[in-house]
Design goal:
The structure is a single chain. It is built from eleven helices and twelve strands. The protein is α/β, with parallel strands linked by helices and 298 residues long. It folds into three domains: 82 residues, Arc Repressor Mutant, subunit A; 98 residues, 3-Layer(aba) Sandwich (D-Maltodextrin-Binding Protein, domain 2), CATH 3.40.190; 98 residues, D-Maltodextrin-Binding Protein, domain 2, CATH 3.40.190.10. Strand 3, helix 5 and strand 4 form a beta-alpha-beta unit. It is elongated.
């Protein structure tokens, strides 16, 4: 089959798997809808599989199509990177757009510094930010919908590379004139507070895991996925919040907050930059990752 296989069909297959729609795949490829439909027919014949089956208004991939999706996309990306490998990346003239997923906390800590660097070194580069949930958006990275993510992950599939970005500790934030806390915050006082928990999509955080191991629990009265809103709520209520230290110190300069060390040791947590391992040869993406790493050192 391979001697007669039109490799352009692989681009059509990749677009169809990304879009799950013939019309949108045609738009992505700048082809007509009949041309993409014809290419899909040829793929079905060559691979002896329907590949995409209409279910209602959408098209669902067959098991064979799903098995082929990742290796075909990886091959196309490797070909593309090999062909442009001789072209040096020039940040000053680049017009690339990068899609990054991260939490509102990481965006606040990282992006002001990064945007300042880009405005000086690469004014043509654009950044699109998407919200990061508690799980790695592996499918979006595989499909090229995301270039990288910055967050905290326990384990990663082998097809992803990870780069340490920053280590963080936790602090307790209370409003400055909180009626229950005078002086130091010990464990009984901590447990006696009503708490706000920034869950970030998790079912249990580091603090509650430690408390559970000691047979203890805290009184959580408010949960939110947003770190930035949490600080404002704490500043105007009697709730307490455990926040990343950099974020807590930042908001303590803007809001009437007092900060305390946790009255028990949970250790630091580590934030990482994650991308597809095969894109380690992408000079533009690696340049951006280096800038993000440097932003944490500033």
């Amino acid at each position: 089959m391979l001697p007669n296989f039109d490799l352009n069909l692989l681009r059509v297959f990749d677009a169809l798997m990304r879009e799950r729609n013939v019309s949108r795949a045609a738009e992505r490829l700048a082809l007509s809808q009949p041309a993409v439909s014809n290419a899909l027919g040829r793929l079905r014949e060559l691979l002896d599989d329907p590949l995409l089956v209409r279910v209602g208004r959408s098209m669902q991939p067959t098991p064979r199509a799903l098995a082929l999706e990742t290796p075909i996309r990886a091959a196309l990306q490797q070909i593309e990177e090999s062909l442009k490998g001789g072209d040096g990346f020039d940040p000053a003239s680049s017009r690339q757009r990068f899609n990054i997923a991260l939490t509102d906390y990481v965006e606040l800590i990282c992006m002001p510094r990064l945007v300042r660097q880009l405005s000086e070194l690469a004014p043509g580069i654009a950044i699109d930010i998407q919200h990061l949930s508690s799980t790695l958006p592996a499918e979006a990275l595989d499909k090229g919908e995301l270039d990288l993510v910055v967050g905290r992950f326990e384990t990663l599939p082998a097809r992803f590379s990870r780069r340490h970005w920053m280590s963080e500790t936790l602090q307790v934030a209370l409003r400055r004139d909180h009626p229950q806390v005078q002086g130091e915050l010990d464990l009984p006082a901590f447990l006696g507070l009503r708490h706000l928990w920034v869950h970030g999509g998790q079912t249990r955080g580091m603090v509650d895991q430690w408390l559970g191991e000691q047979g203890l629990c805290r009184d959580i009265r408010y949960t939110t996925p947003n770190y930035l809103q949490a600080a404002h709520i704490v500043a105007s209520s009697e709730l307490a919040a455990v926040l990343p230290s950099q974020l807590a110190r930042y908001f303590a300069t803007l809001l009437p907050l007092q900060l305390f060390e946790l009255p028990f040791a949970v250790g630091p947590f580590h934030l990482e930059i994650v991308s597809l391992a095969q894109r380690q040869r992408d000079p533009a993406l690696q340049w951006l990752i280096e800038r993000i790493v440097l932003s944490a050192r500033d």
